[in-house]
Design brief:
6 strands, alpha+beta, 15% helix, disordered N terminus
Length: 136
């Protein structure tokens, strides 16, 4: 990204940090919602393209979507490893030829912290959809 583009992106961003504009097959990058747990793994070559959080009755819910041009099998392997270590456990619900993947995950130390992960691939773009409900 050239410096003129980086400067324009920084000026357009409400937080002042440069966010990637739509390019190639990927949508524009959006900022990470405040309070998103730092121990949730984020695929390193993915761009956050949608994210929101909602608070109600002492719980926080996040809905996130990332995009990458990496192969869905590589993304699935990353999440299978990362969400099966530390304070997380992962249960795969559906896997079809590396194109469709659905899983549930939960925090071992607080089973009220749980979420879903879906990985889909279409036209060379792998989409990672993650939802998380946390007791705050």
């Amino acid at each position: 990204m050239g410096s003129a583009t980086a400067t324009a992106s920084a000026l357009a961003s409400p937080t002042g940090s440069p966010l990637a504009k739509a390019s190639g097959r990927l949508d524009a990058e959006v900022p990470l919602p405040a309070g998103f747990p730092a121990d949730i793994p984020v695929y390193p070559k993915a761009r956050l393209t949608a994210g929101a959080s909602f608070t109600s009755t002492g719980q926080v819910a996040w809905g996130m979507e990332w995009e990458t041009t990496d192969d869905p099998g590589k993304v699935q392997a990353y999440y299978a490893k990362q969400l099966n270590q530390g304070d997380w456990t992962l249960t795969v619900n559906n896997q079809t030829n590396g194109v469709v993947y659905a899983a549930a995950f939960a925090r071992k130390s607080n089973l009220h912290d749980k979420g879903t992960l879906a990985i889909n691939s279409d036209a060379g773009v792998t989409t990672i959809a993650l939802s998380l409900l946390s007791s705050g």
